[in-house]
Structures are given as C-alpha cells and as structure tokens.
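Sequence in, structure out.
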Amino acid sequence: MKRFLVLAVFLVAVGSACGSTSDGGDDRPLVIATTTILGDIVANTAGDAVQVEVLMPIGADPHDFALSARQAARLRDATLVVAIGVGLEEASLDVLDAAEQDGVAVMRVGELVDPQPLVIGSAAGGSEGRASSGEEPQGFDPHVWMDPVRMALAVELIADRLHTSAGVDVSVSSAAYRTRVQDLNLELARMIESVPPERRRMVTNHFSYGYYANRYGITLLGAVIPAHTTGAETSAADFAALVELLKREGVSVVFGSATEPTTLADALAEEVGYEVKVVRLPTGSLGEPGSGAETYIDMMRLSTSLIVENL
C-alpha cells in the first residue's frame, strides 16, 4: 500500500509539471514513462502539452520492477510509451512488447542514443563499457541516463516523437530543457575536475556507471555484483578477488545505489579489514521529496557531489 501511495504522490508531481494531473477530465495526449527519471525528462521536454504518467514508484529498482495487471491495461490508453529499453526494464519486457504488438507506440530511448557495448570481466576487472583484447561485448549497457550528453540528445528525440505520435509541438519547452541538461554536463565535469586524477577511481555495487565514468574520466575498478543488472549474483571467487583489489588499491569507499540492497557491499567492507564506507547514490530512481534528488538534474548533481566528497 505504501508503494502505491508514493506512486500517487509522484504522479501528482509530474502532472503538475505538465500543467495538471492525469485525471479523466484531461483530454491531452497521454504519455506513459517507465521510470521516474524518464517521467521527469518527458514532463520537462513536453511542458504542458501532454499528460505524463509514470509506471514505477520512487525508489523502485528498474531492473526487477514488474508491472501490475492494471498498469499493463493502462498502457493501451497511451498515445506513447517511453522506455529506456536496452534490457533495462527486464521484468516488464513481455508486457511492453505485448502492448507494442497491440499497436501501442513504444519509444525505447536507450536504443537511439548510441548505447555502448557492455563488457564485463571479473568483479575486479574494471572493464565496464570498454572492450579489451580477447573480450566480447555482452550486449549493451542500459544505464544511458548516467550520461547527460546522451540525455540531451534524448530530449530532442523525445520532442520529435511527441510531434509525430501525439501531434504536439514542444519545440520551445524541449529546447529550454535540452539547454539545462547540456549545462548539467558542464557542471558535473567541473565538479569531477576538482578530484585529483589519481583518485578518480570507483568500486560500485553493480555495473551501472559505465557511461558516467567514460564521460568524466573515472576508472571503474570493479563491482560487487559483476553484471549490469541487480538480478545477477556474485560468486565466492569474484567476491574474494574484489576484496583483494580493495586491499591492493587501498580503496576506502564502495558506491551503492539507493534502489538496491547493499548487503554484499557491507559484507565486503567488513571483509577488507579496514574501514570502508558504503555510500548510497541515487542512480536508478528519483528520490523522495526533500532528498535533493527529486528531478533528473538534481539527482545527477547530488550523485556527483557525493562521489566528489568521497573520492
């Protein structure tokens, strides 16, 4: 019940950004976004031209959130459904595919913004997002929103799709928001530049920071869960290898996500034998009101602030 109350609050917030809530008296085209992050981006791109609903509640892990029967039915009312794709919404793929087969327009943003190959070695491999000799790409990394440059392009693409699918002109609102996202990229780059180059190294809970690291010159040493999805598991050998990596490199912080349990990261910190902080970052979802991560721009700014503070 609490989860659905949180969702209701978020829908009201997004509806306000669009001009009104998405009740039965609203005759604007309905656009449904899968994640809270996409919902915010679509709402800011569209201004008040459409009504926006979001499927996932605040705090939901986009990898394992499964749509309810009511949500699946609601998709049929949408003029456009905006998803990340690239395998992100893995627990809801069948529902999204079925809606598209029934004639619902589905836009998968991640597939349109040059997704990067996902190459994952061992937990201590540090190869996320970059292929090295002898390694084969394992699909594409779905965490495209972690790169504001790609999201600035996404704003433009969403605006074009709203015009073709919903018949609305959002050129003014989308141009203004695209500029804000481009400015965010410059701001984050300046923040990361304040960290000495030799300290720009991260260990994360799972491989979700590949785009971010490539954009801002950060080395990803490894991940507690050596996969792009939180549904994967780590092996005893991978865990032991990561413990040794932390000791060898003198790593004193592991970055987790606010939408994921940090049980393994906490265990890793205990195993190393010296103090290791586990810092939870807003990554897969916007934050609750008052969290400082209520919008995409605020979320990225807060994440970067925490990264800089702890590196």
